[in-house]
Here is the input.
Amino acid sequence: MQNQVPHIPAHYYARITELLLASQPELKAWLNTAHIDLDFLFKPNQLLNLQQVENLVLMALQVSQRPELAIDLGQSLRITSHAIIGYGVLTSETLDQAMHFLSRYFRLLMPLFKMNILQESEHVQLIFEPTAALSPLSMQFHLETIFSAVHTALKELLHEKLLPYHAYFSFAEPDYIERYALLKPAIVHFGWEQQPFLRLKFPKHLLAIRLETADAYSRQMIEQRCLEEMKGLVSRGGIGDWVAMMLKQSNDGLTTLQELADLLHISVRTLDRHLKAEGIQFRELSLEIRMMRAKDMLEHRHLSISHIALELGYRDSGNFSRAFKKAVGLSPEQYRLHKNVS
Here is the structure.
């Protein structure tokens, strides 16, 4: 996780108060206890600090006596509830393009978490991991909200085309497990790792589904707007996750620091300075992700060593093999054989 504590958009937490407002007359007192002013919470573009978020979540669970509140919150969100990111998803051509768009700009939606995509031979995984330390209750609340919101969005996008998929949670099975049974066709699993995370595993062929709301021109305009918002994230710190995601998603070689700076309309020197302020060396990060992608392709994709080398931007398989052995300690062929045997 990153050491830098982000500021978090308030509108999702404002939605919590909307869910409780009608039936909870003590809401005003609850917000005062959490040091949040109701008028402030509903103003556009407001940001909360981590302690305010913790207070809001814990007090909401206490006041409502609804431990499944996070699932209700996620289900209350339509795709358009996610502002410009939601419209970027809606206007994507395919589900694959929508998922990659979401992963690139997920930090704009929820800076407390990062989203990665793992491609396998038959499946694709969406992986959500925290970027800041949260209390156990708050962590579970956020992971359940993300799951419920993604599930609701997929139902909205795909309707009956959404096939059974698996959701893996790091926390133990909750007492309200019957609430999850209503989120069909998701198949849920609990207690998978000690480190907090959420993994959603889908059949890979779902990625090719074309979306009825696709609009290439609008999506291009939305992408430009998102890049402008990323520039604001650069100035506040926290650009490292986005740079890592862009490196993971690049095709025909890895994206260069110059290309990323050009996307943000800032100089290479400025972007490099912000990365170093987060303790990130671009060259080291680039090599780490290149080797990570190489391992993934060797394990899960039936590609030749030459094909993998070219896809990762190496001039030939010899250069790739030498770099891989230096970083991993095994040649690509040895690594593939070792993984296949194990």
